[in-house]
Fold:
Amino acid sequence: MTVVNRDGKVSELQNALNAFDLDQIASVFVLPKVASTSTASGRSTSSSSGKSVSLQDHGLDWSSTLTQYCNASDAALAGDASKMFESQCALHSSFHSVFSSSQGNWLVPTLHMICKMTHKAAIAADRYTSTSASSKDSNAHLQKAVTLLQESYSKTSNDRREFKADAPLDDQEGSKKAGVLKIVNELFAIYFRLNTLRLCKNLLRPVESRKLHQMGKMADMVTYRYYVGRLNLFEDQYQAAEQSLEYALKHCHKNAFENKRRILRYLVPVKLFRGRLPSLQLLEKYGLLEFLPIVEGVRTGDLRLFQGGLVKSQDIFIHRGTYLLLEKCKTVCYRNLFKRIHVITERHQIPLNTVAKSLKWLGMPIDLDEVECILANLIFRGYIRGYLSHAKRVLVLSKRDPFPVSAVIMK
Amino acid sequence: MFANHQYQYQYQQAGGGAVSTGGMVWNGNAWVQAPAAAQQQQPNGRNSTFSTASYVQPQKESRWSRAPQQQARPAAAAKPQQGGPPDGLKSVIPSHRNKASPYSSRQKSSSKYQNHYGPANENEDFIKVPNFGVKKGSNKYVNPNSAKKKKPMDDAGFQRSSSTMAQRANRFSGPGGNADVRQATAKGIDARYMGKGVIGGSSKKLDETDYEQMKVKGSCRKLEKQYLRLTAPPKAELVRPLEILQQHLFNLKTEWKSKKTRRDYLWFCAEMKAVRQDLTVQHIQNSFTVQAYEFHARIALQEGDINEFNQAQTQLKILYEKLDDAKSLENENEFVAYRMIYFVVMSLNKGYKGGSSDLLKLMLSLTSSQRNDPAIKHSLQLRAAVAEMDYHKFFQLMKSCPNLGGMLISRSVPIMRHLALQRICRAYRPSVAFVFALKELGFSVETAKEIDDGKKYLLSCGCVFNDEDGSEIQTKNTVVRESDLEEKRSLN
Structure:
């Protein structure tokens, strides 16, 4: 069983501090992956803490932080996820004191790295210990991580120094507020995983009021907008969601394929609802094949295809929270269906029997009253210009632009 | 011997101190100097009968003396008289009586005789006379009118001996007295709970939820109980144990079914709340608890009490997650369907800001077997119909609602009708047969009366009818508003 070389770690950190390379310092605290139990040998570290190391530098005491890091790494290599998480928590808290006593914001990258590690460790620990399906227990570690990260957030955001956006992260001068956005993003990620979205709103206000989301690294800003877009989606604010997600997509790094895919998962339904269809190539490129039948159904007015696609990937959509939005796209699908009928029959008065027949052909027989109901809804919302006559069972379309495109796009 | 046995009359001014006669007293014949020995002063304000008798008995206990303190006070208030007998009389008066009047503040009282009537020490200026056979606490006379300011000595006459205090306290020992007061003060009773009395213990103010979390083993055998919010830790003798509760619930169920003779809903609700409280404080969470909550939820639904229903169903959700025996879960699907309908109703409610996350969570949590359950399937279809504003399907589904879901969904009927009428009036031109419209709106149109009622509803929404036979709504001229009819709930 491998253990981490403690002395080696000490010298590694010492070198990084001497060189004052901020990223190098951060990289010291990267945790190794939790070994799967098959590769770990039977011997595990019985004591919770191994030999403690000590290091003082820059007027800060790194001892406990580094010791805990070594414990965490040992636990990870031994395959013990929960012990790793415990040590990581201890590491995180002791680092808080180091961070507070440091001047300036040179430790911000290290803080970010440690936050990220805590997050990952929590997820790993939860995965390894989740035996029951009860939602409360299976996120216990993650909830502990939340507290730690919230503390990190308050430490960065409560720094009194003025924040200069363009100043590089250097030693004694800068404000710790530079680190806020990244931590906020981590917290967002956790909250979404825990499905406690109301806590996200508490983070929005301070960040927006200080305009932190418009300064800093592009990566952080993109991530922030992605989460904000998702939040808007949840609250049915589709316009704002579209804006945020578009921004995120546009500014996303062109090589960040996975991230763009993630953004698209939410952007495609929003756009679909607003009448913009994604091209086939787009869907294929990003592997968003679950949208294929839906998009095709909407485009051709093929209700059966649409409905089938929706039901098939129902669980995925519900999990993401986009199911209800996609259901609303059904209206667009109906509209396109009727438009097709109109184009095919080339008449302005369509007997409802025809409509019923076409639906029956699609394999979805609907009685006439139901058809009238659907049409009434479409007319009411302006997707169709015309009117119904119940006595004659006829849909009368306007001579001029009976299926206005603007209605769809505007909505 | 001086005219000892002569009664010295001492006149007192009413309400005042001793008369300032310059130390002279009337001995029946003439004014003579008051003897050096103290006269016992009568309490102020008392005149005539008692105040005149004042003879001195230096050494004997006198039966005639009043309560010493009271006598002492007026004495203290009395204007100090000239000390000492006048010079002329000095030779006459025996030496041991030659000392200054005790009321003289200038002269010390030192005598061979133990001066019972002198001040206990120099600093006092009134006499402390021992309790001569006076019953304890029998003479309570306190002069409220004493004009002179009394020095606050000895609590101004308030006896603090432990026996007197105990006797006073005993007067409040009956019901509603000491024992109950001690119990009622929060400091007393809460100190035993939540570590309040312990050094370093919490000082949190306890509220109802804390009291409910305290565990108690019930011992009350009475079936019925009045519901009261917990303002103090629960008392074991008021909490009913499980078997009593089971019996009581059975009785309640039978009573609810006998619609003729049963009491009103509010009484049932209060009884159920008491049952729930007893279950909570005894931390009983088993299939019986589920039964109790289900019963409460059902009767709340039947009476249209949405708040109680929501409380009960929230608890039921927690119970269903916790328990996994078949008996507890046998009605779970029914209540899952209710939850779904509840969220649908809520989402139609204009004030609801919760968004769709609850609904999504619920949908996600459905297992495949649950999705095939008829009640849940129905509720899912209902949800879909509302989402699409498919009013036709909505009203059809409503007619076939399983269990008690109809009571729940009927709450959203008014708003669905309004929205549906909007669409109808927008889509059908130039007019539409109103009977058809009523059918689409879920009204029953079997009898003439029903049709008539339906027409009233349409009129109340602002529908304009055609002139010929009133059978069509002139949709072009109609601007739909919400109905201002009173009776909005019924399906007709």
